[in-house]
Specification:
InterPro entries: DNA_brk_join_enz, Integrase-like_cat_sf, Integrase_catalytic, Integrase_DNA-bd_sf, Integrase_DNA_bind_dom, Integrase_recombinase_N, Phage_int_M, Phage_Integrase. The chain has 3 domains: about 10-95, 2-Layer Sandwich (Double Stranded RNA Binding Domain), CATH 3.30.160.390; about 105-200, DNA polymerase, domain 1, CATH 1.10.150; about 215-400, hpI Integrase, Chain A (Orthogonal Bundle). The protein starts with 9 loop residues before the first helix and ends with a helix. It is elongated, with a radius of gyration of 35 Å. The protein is α+β, with helices and mostly antiparallel strands and about 400 residues long. The protein has a 4-stranded antiparallel β-sheet with strand order 1-2-3-4, covered by helices on one side. The protein has helices at about 10-15, 65-80, 85-100, 105-115, 125-135, 140, 150-160, 165-185, 215-225, 230-245, 245-250, 290-300, 320-330, 340-350, 355-360, 370-375, 380-400, and strands at about 25, 30-35, 40-45, 55-60, 260, 265, 280-285.
Length: about 400
């Protein structure tokens, strides 16, 4: 026979004496009286899944009235009858509500930090990308809840800007799509509404950097010799030519990275292009021509940290676009870029029958897939030394002619 529980009343509550066990009201609702000032409503129930007796505080009397406590108990019992633990259910609902209310400014740092933690971007690259979002994306959508962002709203926001700043918009949209993909993974939204938006802001096909044939080098040197440029700027063009380095890598070279005895330049992994997943330093065999150029640079910047130090900020390297500027000012705009010097050298090596993998290693290119590289650790140093010297001899010949 079920035990009769005498329901609580406001008058009875005021006169209840403190005791170790709580007073029952029925329907799993209890009131624990600690003393005259402290009285707490408790919901004491059997968990619908584990079948364990569970006790949870639901409010302090009189801040939570008897009637409101009973209303809560009725709602909890209804959830239990549906096989749901009421407190777990409400916690999930609150979490879902919080996720739905998170805006782009709140979520973007999580995306950034995760990308960095996974090694998908270098810190400097991410800092640059994030500044672009701060300048162009966050002012428009920063305070918008992620679950309210729509494809049409994004198109409307950037379509006009795309006409004048297409490259910037394409990069911003690309990162925006990534952020929204992460939002799906975090359960903030069920699907990415921007998954097809890049069809609207379609990236232009990258045009190969303009280059010239190696046989046209004498004409280039003739122009450089007559050019009214700083000698160090002209030497930088020749340095990039001889070492086949990318512009940013070429200008950032430090004297400490040069091994004069072994005739090597060792560029730390963090300076090389690529992600943080498989950081690789790059060792460049220095031809006699490259070593001679470095000795010439010693006269100008030997007291500086960087071989090609910035004239205005001596503690920093010169701008990575310096060589491009020299080429443009001397009639090579649209004909040859600093990066095109790499293509010219690579083509020359191919024409001389240099092995494909050796030539690609000269450019610090990865060859093959992850599996094949796992079994091939060679950097072809001695073969590259021969190739670089062959190229250096040719460059010197063109310079003299």
């Amino acid at each position: 026979m079920a035990k009769f529980v005498k329901p609580l009343t406001e008058t009875r509550i005021k006169n209840l004496k403190p005791k170790a066990t709580p007073y029952g009201d029925g329907n799993n609702l209890f009131l624990h009286v600690y003393n005259a000032e402290k009285k707490t409503f408790i919901f004491w129930y059997v968990h619908p899944i584990t079948k364990k007796r569970t006790k949870r505080k639901i409010g302090e009397y009189p801040y939570l009235s008897l009637e409101d406590a009973r209303e809560k108990a009725r709602a909890f019992n209804k959830l239990i009858s549906q096989g749901l633990d009421p407190f777990e259910y409400l916690a999930r609902q609150a979490e879902m509500q919080a996720r739905q209310e998170i805006n782009l400014l709140e979520f973007a740092p999580k995306w950034r930090d995760l990308k960095l933690a996974k090694g998908e971007n270098k810190p400097a690259t991410m800092a640059r990308e994030y500044r672009r979002l701060e300048n162009h994306l966050f002012p428009i959508f920063g305070h918008c809840p992620i679950n309210q962002i729509t494809k049409i709203a994004v198109i409307d926001a950037f379509f006009e800007m795309y006409a004048t700043k297409g490259d910037t918009v394409e990069k911003v949209i690309g990162r925006f799509v990534e952020i929204m993909d992460y939002a799906v993974e975090f359960g903030i939204i069920e699907a990415n509404p921007l998954s097809t938006i890049q069809k609207t802001f379609k990236r232009k096909k990258d045009k190969p950097n303009p280059t010239i044939n190696a046989k046209d080098l004498p004409a280039l040197f003739k122009r450089l010799n007559l050019a009214n440029n700083f000698i160090t700027s002209k030497l930088l063009v020749e340095w990039q030519m001889l070492t086949m380095l990318r512009s940013k890598e070429a200008v950032s070279i430090e004297w400490a990275e040069i091994d004069w005895h072994k005739k090597l330049l060792v560029i730390p992994a963090e300076k090389m292009k690529g992600t943080l997943k498989n950081p690789r330093p790059h060792t460049v065999p220095l031809s006699t021509q490259a070593l001679a150029l470095l000795k010439e640079m010693k006269k100008h910047n030997g007291h500086r940290r960087h071989v090609f130090a910035n004239r205005l900020k001596p503690d920093e390297p010169c701008n990575s676009q310096t060589a491009n500027s020299v080429l443009k000012r001397n009639g090579y705009h649209g004909i040859l870029t600093a990066h095109g010097l790499r293509a010219m050298a690579r083509t020359y090596l191919a024409d001389q029958g240099i092995d494909f993998q050796v030539a690609e290693a000269c450019l610090a290119h990865l060859v093959g897939g992850d599996v094949s590289r796992r079994y091939n650790y060679s950097d072809y140093l001695e073969l590259r030394r021969q190739a670089m010297q062959m190229w250096g001899d040719y460059v010197e010949q063109c310079k003299k002619s």
